[in-house]
Design goal:
single chain; 1068 residues; 7 helices; eight-stranded antiparallel sheet; mainly beta
């Protein structure tokens, strides 16, 4: 009873609080209106007051009516009946007989309602301008013709005119005509019209147009659709003809978002050009079977802005190709052809081709669709896995996906055995996730997970937004197929709790635990020294097998489980079940024996090394030693020396570590007093000494020694032959061959003098022409001058130890491959090779033409390379040393030979060569001079002479090692009568560059012929030698200077060799 009492009190309060009293004027107006329309039965009485606001016919706000719904049962309503309401928002007339001035005729003020709706009313007409504040007029379900046509001027103040027919839109009477009597633009925004003509759109700028033409419409008015380009805002158009067919009326449009057409069209005489119809979406429904051109889609040249085409219920022979469409709907077009791949028709995100007669199979290419419908065709074969894997397991179970595929002849509508859904989860941003895999669902797939909203992107991934706190493990459920997956995004080590052998098989194992993976390709398991091949996996379980069973005496085998980038280590004993007992503390580099949970093995930190669990010791990297691999094996990369017989600061660069117990430096037997030291630099003071001496570095009970590694600076350098400063030119001109640059010992020649020592040159010389070639297989460069041939090639890269013994020999000849992709620049050829025994090391040789005289500078040494030279660059990237104490030697070979005379040589040429050969008969032997190799000068020389041609080599003994200038030595590796091999001894540096350059010069001794035969007059002989000068400098600098795109690791070397010749390259 008490509950009932409180309910009555609550109801009374609601009645009291919801009852609203109108102001006196609107109350009297409502009393008269409701009485005249016989609507008082809808009005309740409260304390002798009529509650019009609760009648359902009148809605009030405070004391004012805002909505009035009048159903007069075909009673006439007049202006004065409703003009008394001052704040109406909506005014509905239903079954009302309207008077001409129902909403006000000027000078009467208009009805105050914002929206006026006429439902099944009589005597509807547009007699004058509809006044403000009315902005919308809706006419629904005409039961008789309008009393007037509709002039656009009568709508000049409103924004919306909307006409609707809900039951039978085709009336036996004519719809009104729209008459454009405008003189200026009006604000009419929405035009939904059931009319008898298409209006002229002059001075109209609507955003939404819907025109339905009824019985007896004016066909000539269709011309008003031909050009819609003057509508200068984005708009949508819907057009429908209720009776008959029409020719296609549209020719031009712009700013059109959507064009929706529902009518029958006449058969066109030719394809309709759509290039000027700038419409994003074009939709045709019920076009009739006659709207085609010989059974083909009747359109051509769709505008690039058109992205969606719907063409339904026609008759087509096939699916055409569309270049720009994203979405295509060809439902119900009786298409009777074989379905090809999706690329045959375009690139779509939506493809709806149901209710046709398509045959063939459904190709995998359709998996990329966001929306699709292939139902009710004659397709056969298997359904692609991207769809089939997400079908219900029973054909009796309905699903949205199945409805898009049914009605075909597919092999099955259930998932095949080969389905293996493997979802992966990844956090990509602030509460943003992606679910990805080979197949993770379709746009019709329902995926649920706690606090996650999923959005389909394509069959390989979904995106999800998390609402709330992320769980450690996400439960991802596919509702249609009843499968759940447990996924995680935080990197977590796989946790094994139990290992057993499956079905008592000695080869098969089952790992039980958590934080595994469904993707077996990301899982690696190794039991002892045997790989366990993964067969299946989930979040909780992994099944795998080994190829050969374990023996009974194999116990406590170290087992490593890798899932993605996460690793775990356990020990198991085969042929029994294993309960895993984790170690309480991290074993570091040691081994956790999980049979009892104890750590055994190496120290907790091997620093610069790895633990060998079998031996229980740290195996150090090549640069470190000690039980914890923390003591560096020091080495030098470069030295900054001092001037001979002086006192100064020596700088040593390399690897010295942070532990420097008992450190001392000896240079040439002299103590160098240390003034500064860190892990990479030592400064020490040295007093006196000269020449080339050795270096000893001792610390931590370990001595590093390098023979002939420190070269005192000689400030004044001598030039070859004093640059022949006491000679005159052969022609008698000039005085002195040249001047000496004593900074580097290089001659600067005067006019009439040439070569490295400025030898005299005549002005009447005919210089023999040299030719060059590059072997595209071996990368060997050749220089030929008449019958004399020189070869220049880099033959080997050696790794040598502290005692100069060869540790590794990498042959380089005959292993080059031309790189056509890189050899794109004119005059540039690129070769490459990988070292056979050092697979990470790639050598690249680039031969490039030098088109003009160029001054080069290496380690403070400047020298000139002449025009029409060749630059050969050899880079060695990522060389891995066996030991940090080792260094490299690069070997370059120079060969000279005599070429045979060809049988096709002309008589004149034979005669000239015979004369020269007679003259040079005594010079066919080869002379090699290496006396110019010395440590006293920056520039060293060698010469090879044959047949009056001289090959001269000049070596610059400076090196920038890891960006710092230092000394390096060269040596003669071997020599014979025809060749000379020079070894360039490089330090243990991370970055080094070697630069030989070859240029052709001229000096006297070689005989040239005249137009007469073998003139014996010695005054008429011009004897010349053609020397090939070789300048070799070695420069190493930091990688950011060499090339900015390659990252080099510790103990890896970059070496570059540049070769120049003054003759033009010819490919052979």
């Amino acid at each position: 009873m008490r509950v009932l009492f409180y309910c009555c009190i609550l109801l009374l309060l609601i009645l009291v609080t919801t009852s609203v009293k109108l102001n006196d004027g609107e109350y009297e107006c409502s009393l008269n209106l409701f009485t005249n329309l016989h609507m008082m039965q809808y009005v309740a009485t409260v304390d002798d007051y009529y509650d019009f606001c609760s009648s359902g016919k009148l809605t009030c706000n405070n004391d004012t009516a805002t909505y009035l719904n009048l159903n007069s049962n075909f009673t006439s309503i007049y202006y004065d009946d409703i003009s008394c309401y001052k704040s109406l928002n909506n005014l509905d007339f239903t079954n009302v007989i309207l008077t001409p001035n129902i909403i006000g005729t000027p000078p009467q003020p208009g009805i105050t309602s914002f929206k006026i709706n006429f439902y099944s009313c009589y005597d509807v007409g547009f007699y004058d301008v509809i006044s403000l504040p009315t902005r919308e007029v809706h006419i629904l379900n005409l039961i008789e013709p309008l009393k007037t046509n509709i002039t656009l001027s009568s709508l000049s103040l409103i924004s919306n005119i909307e006409m609707y027919e809900y039951s039978n839109p085709l009336k036996p009477f004519l719809f009104p005509y729209i008459i454009n009597d405008l003189k200026q633009y009006i604000p009419l925004d929405v035009m939904f019209l059931y009319v008898s003509n298409v209006p002229n759109f002059t001075y109209l700028n609507p955003s939404n147009i819907q025109i339905t033409l009824g019985h007896g419409f004016d066909k000539e008015s269709l011309l008003n659709f031909e050009d819609l380009t003057h509508i200068n805002r984005s708009f949508s158009l819907m057009f429908k003809v209720l009776d008959g067919s029409i020719p296609f009326p549209f020719k031009k449009a712009k700013n059109c978002l959507t064009m929706t057409i529902a009518t029958y069209f006449d058969t066109p005489n030719d394809y309709i050009d759509m290039s000027n119809i700038e419409t994003q979406i074009i939709q045709f429904s019920n076009v009739s079977s006659s709207f085609s051109v010989n059974g083909n889609l009747p359109f051509k040249n769709f505008n690039i802005k058109t992205k969606l085409l719907k063409f339904n219920n026609g008759k087509l022979n096939s699916i055409p190709f569309f270049q720009y469409l994203n979405s295509l709907d060809l439902t119900g077009n009786q298409i009777n052809s074989e379905l090809g791949k999706m690329g045959d028709y375009g690139s779509f995100s939506t493809l709806l081709i149901s209710k046709n007669n398509l045959t063939g199979t459904l190709d995998q290419s359709y998996c990329s669709l966001t929306s699709f419908d292939f139902s009710n065709n004659s397709l056969s074969g298997p359904i692609p896995l991207c769809f089939a894997c997400f079908l219900p397991n029973s054909e009796l179970t309905s699903s949205k996906l199945r409805t898009r595929l049914i009605g075909n002849n597919f092999e099955s509508y259930t998932p095949p055995i080969s389905c293996n859904i493997i979802p992966n989860l990844k956090l990509i941003g602030n509460n943003q996730y992606i679910l990805y895999g080979d197949y993770v669902g379709t746009s019709l797939t329902t995926i649920t997970s706690t606090s996650m909203n999923w959005s389909f992107k394509n069959y390989t991934y979904f995106t999800g937004t998390l609402n709330g706190v992320a769980p450690l493990v996400f439960n991802i459920t596919y509702s249609e197929i009843g499968k759940s997956f447990f996924l995680f995004t935080t990197p977590t080590q796989p946790n094994v709790t139990y290992v057993e052998q499956i079905n008592d098989s000695p080869n098969h194992f089952q790992f039980i635990g958590t934080y595994f993976n469904y993707n077996i390709s990301t899982i690696e398991i190794k039991i002892g020294d045997r790989i366990c091949n993964v067969q299946s996996s989930t979040f909780y379980q992994i099944n795998c097998y080994v190829d050969n069973a374990f023996t009974s005496n194999e116990k406590d085998l170290i087992t490593r489980i890798k899932v993605g980038e996460q690793n775990s280590q356990i020990t198991i004993t085969p042929n029994q079940n294993n309960t895993i007992i984790p170690c309480e503390n991290d074993c570091g580099n040691g081994i956790c024996y999980t049979n009892n949970g104890t750590c055994i093995g190496c120290p907790s930190n091997c620093n610069n090394g790895k633990c060998n669990p079998t031996l229980g010791i740290c195996i150090c990297n090549s640069d470190y030693m000690g039980s914890h691999c923390s003591i560096p094996l020091q080495y030098l990369t470069s030295i900054v020396p001092i001037i001979s017989n002086s006192e100064g600061t020596v700088q040593l660069f390399g690897l010295f570590g942070t532990i420097n117990d008992g450190i001392s430096i000896e240079i040439g037997g002299r103590n160098c007093n240390i003034t500064f030291i860190n892990s990479q630099t030592i400064n020490c003071t040295l007093n006196g000494g000269s020449g080339l001496v050795s270096v000893n570095v001792t610390q931590n009970g370990y001595t590093w020694f390098k023979k002939n590694y420190f070269n005192y600076i000689i400030p004044i350098q001598n030039c070859p032959n004093n640059c022949n400063s006491d000679k005159t030119s052969i022609g008698g001109g000039g005085g002195g061959g040249g001047t000496c640059d004593t900074n580097i010992g290089q001659c600067i020649c005067k006019n009439g003098f040439v070569g490295i020592d400025c030898s005299p040159q005549t002005q009447e010389t005919i210089i023999p022409i040299s030719n060059s070639s590059v072997n595209l297989t071996t990368g060997v460069s050749k220089i030929s001058n008449e019958q004399t041939n020189y070869e220049i090639k880099v033959i080997a890269l050696l790794e040598v130890d502290l005692n100069g013994n060869t540790v590794l020999n990498h042959p380089l000849v005959n292993n080059w491959n031309i790189d056509e992709n890189e050899s794109t620049k004119q005059g540039q050829y690129v070769f490459s090779q990988l070292l056979d025994t050092n697979k990470n090391c790639k050598l690249v040789t680039t031969i490039e033409e030098v088109s003009k005289d160029t001054q080069y500078s290496f380690a403070g040494v400047n020298f000139l390379v002449f025009a029409n030279s060749l630059k050969l660059t050899i880079s060695i990237n990522n060389y891995t040393f066996i030991s940090s104490l080792n260094s490299l030697q690069l070997q370059i070979e120079s060969l000279v030979s005599i070429l045979p005379t060809t049988t096709t040589t002309t008589t004149t040429t034979n005669k000239e060569n015979n004369c020269k050969n007679d003259e040079s008969a005594s010079n066919t032997t080869t002379s090699i001079d290496i006396s110019g190799i010395t440590t006293d000068t920056i520039l060293n020389y060698i010469t090879i002479e044959k047949n009056n041609k001289i090959f001269t080599g000049r070596f610059i003994n400076k090196l920038l090692s890891d960006g710092r200038a230092t000394f390096f030595s060269s040596q003669v590796v071997s020599r014979n009568n025809e060749s000379l091999i020079i070894g360039l001894n490089l330090p243990h540096c991370s970055n080094c560059v070697v630069d030989p350059d070859f240029s052709v010069l001229v000096s006297s001794s070689f005989k040239t012929t005249t137009t007469t035969d073998c003139d014996t007059n010695s005054n008429k002989k011009n004897n010349w030698k053609t020397p090939v000068a070789v300048v070799i400098s070695v420069v190493g600098f930091s990688i950011i200077v060499i090339i900015s795109m390659i990252i080099f690791k510790k103990h890896r070397t970059l070496i570059k060799v540049k070769v120049f010749t003054a003759i033009k390259l010819t490919k052979k």
